[in-house]
User: What shape does this take?
Amino acid sequence: MQQQNETEKEKEWKWPLGIFLFYMTFVVATLAFVLFTFTQKTDLVVEKYYEATITYQDHIDKASRALNLEQPLKVEASGRNVSVVFPGNMAADELSGTIVLYRPSGSGMDMKLPVQPDASGIQALSFDDKAGGLWKVKVEWRHQELDYFAESSVFIQ
Assistant: This one.
């Protein structure tokens, strides 16, 4: 009888210890997860997100204007070179704007270039010094007081 009482006391003692260990494990795991989430790097597509949403209708107008052109903007990739071909009815010397090379996997590789096509309306971009993979080419240009926007994805070997 006395041996049975000692066995019951041992079992009773293990329950509080088990509950304590369970809750401590939960607390440690939760804290580790919170610490992990705070150390992750987050890249935003646009740094000033709120300001960009206010002017988004202008962006939509530029994109629809570019889609309605008789000859749309073309982005052609061959090997590690990309050609941005502007519409033939737009004189190359009347074009201005920016070309953004956007890398979805890391904003540290993004580049912004001025629109500077040659006389035939083609701007050549070299990706020799850039990492291969998926790139988005965003072209925002101005011709005869009208703004246009076009975006295209290219895969660089």
The radius of gyration is 29 Å. DSSP finds three helices and seven strands in the chain. Residues 1-34 form one domain. The beta strands are 74-78, 81-85, 96-102, 111-114, 122-126, 133-143, 146-156.
